[in-house]
Amino acid sequence: MRKFLIRISVFALLVVMTLAIGETVVRSMPNPYRTKHQGMITCAGDVETIILGNSHSYYGVYADSVERSYNLANVSQIFKYDYLLLKQYAENCKNLHTVVIPMSYCSLFDPNFETNDDWWYVINYVLYMDVDATPNKLKYYCEVFHMPAFREKLRALVKTNYLECDSLGFGVNYKLENRDDKWDKYGSMTAKRHTASNWDFLEENIYYLEEIIKFCQSRGADAVLVTLPAWHIYYENLDERQLAKMYEVTFAMCKKYGLRYYDYMKDKRFVADDFFDCDHMSDVGAKKFTSILKKEVLIGI
Amino acid sequence: MLKPLGISLDWVTLNVVLPVGVSFYTFQSLSYTIDTYKRKIRPTHDIVAFFAFISFFPQLVAGPIERATNLLPQFLKSRSFDYASAVDGMRQILWGLFKKVVVADNCAVVVNQIFNEYQELDGYSLFLGAIYFAFQIYCDFSGYSDIAIGTARLFGINLMRNFAFPYFSRGIAEFWKRWHISLTSWFRDYVYLPLGGSRCTKWKMVRNTFVVFLVSGLWHGANWTFLCWGLFHAILFFVPVLAGKKKYDGMVANDRLLPSVKEFVQMCMTFLLVVLGLIIFRAESMGQALDYIVRIFNDFHIGMPKHGNAPLIYIFILTIVEWLNRDKQYGLQIEEKGLMRWAVVRWAVYYAIFMSVLFLAGKQQEFIYFQF
Fold it and tell me: Fewer beta carbons within 10 angstroms: which end of chain B, N or C?
């Protein structure tokens, strides 16, 4: 028995050492969360406009085109984390003037990823952005604690297609020249995926949306609600009931807090080359959208 | 009547929530009852041993379906730790994990995609989808059996073998001696033989064979697809018997590295027939199964797999390893000879397989046979 246990322990040690090396490698990879954390620490004082939201704004708003702005959006980011990031970094943004809050079709219905299989997103916020997200921090202190995500990050290293953003937080992976030939094939499928099976998280998402708005108003900053452009195959397949609810809540927020809302979802100025897939802008489209945003929304900046 | 308890029953489907693996331990209990009745074993008075036999955790939910004659006596005698047995158990667990996590789960992702959108795909993709499903279900189920048998060995318990490299079979009769052995032998002993087995008229033998296969299909669920799958295998099983074809018992290519051309063709034919049956097994309805099969022959152009090469590579590795060890109990049963006499080489193999389990795993899937 002793011999068996010793050999098993030696084998386990070998495995742990390998995982430790993997953890070090993954942590040293380019990472938008770390880039944004460092960016907000070094240039927070100059930032006048902050862009929040999920992958739609992460790939859709080219902060370099708007003076003194920063893109704090992240892939799959929910309103709760928008709020936590804003609260954390806005303290140092003495000149904060405007906060752009993207209202995607799914924003109000997205589940809190802390409660499902995507809980590994929290690791990014805890490890790289120092966000005080949850009392159970131990669970999020190592990349290796969520093996599928850890594995995907290592695979991305081999394929050199890891998630990357520029120094102002804009996601640089969705270049038009890298777009798949069948980029619009899965538009209806994406629309279905973004349609919530239940509205269990609607209340929680509205709560955090209101917290963001209240926080902005307490800081004297202007909160603006914006829906980004989408390709017709995507918006033609959206669920009417969910879409109507999204607009209902958006207009209610505008009325309650006196906000401006801009809806670019079906804007005909955006053509095929402006999209990387049916619900994300390409780099070309992001620059075009940002210049429109600057001219029509961020007036005076 | 049950509404106050929060249970609502549909009188047509009943819709009863069944415990996981109910059919496995029901069959195990039945074998004890029947064997006791037939005085093959004496009824046990040790209640702990009896419940350990019924609910032994490694094989509780998906087998192997044990016999009281094999398992019960093992709980009644004292056991001590055996190093060689424990090491062998660990190796079998590792191989089972590789089959389940690397091969089956990676195949499952592609299989689900192909079966979900089969109407939009060409014949070659559909053919590959069926092949992948054959390896998915084999690796999923035999992987579980390997893990169960290996875990039991750590406790000094020997469970029966459940799979014996079934895809190296040269005929359907041989396939059924190598696939889900514990269930097949259960049906043989408790259904086929009591009905008269093969010691009766030819037509009674035909009836007995069909009954066994139809019951075997129904065991998987009350669905036409399972019933037709059973019927399909009954026909495949019986045609060579009626034609008086030779039955194969021993290992294929015994004492040779490669099979003869005849053996290779026989293995391929058997495998393709099994794959055809598995399309029926996997489909949601008989209509879908027939549509899928017809579409395979439409627009069939061999080329690069559209859903990635990874499953093919894993299947290739699995097949090579299992072929080289086809005379053993499981794929990774290493003998300390040749290169493998060096501990460092053996450890390198274990390490490589364990790392592949960690880093090449497919999307997590529940074991298919948990539902039965």
Answer: N
